[in-house]
From TrEMBL:
Domain Alcohol dehydrogenase-like N-terminal: 25-75
UniProt protein name: NAD(P)-dependent alcohol dehydrogenase
Gene3D superfamilies recorded: Medium-chain alcohol dehydrogenases, catalytic domain
InterPro entries: ADH-like_N (IPR013154), GroES-like_sf (IPR011032), Zinc_ADH-like (IPR052711)
Pfam families attached to this UniProt entry: ADH_N
Signal sequence extent: none
Amino acid sequence: MKAWLLKDFGLENLKLEEVETPVPGPGELLVKVGAVSLNFRDKAIVEGFYEPHLVPKPLIPVSDATGTVVATGQG
């Protein structure tokens, strides 16, 4: 699948890449995203201003999305 991936802080580090499709674990869903809304929080995360010590990397930054559930984990 293609995803905008953030490997380090800064807009220059946000790259469209081919990544492995995740497999949902227990209590998780896999959603085929149809639309996203990027907002100020997403920009602040990308730039490293929003709780940078809590941001895992690499990260697909998105706060709001809609789509179709395509797989479920157990539970």
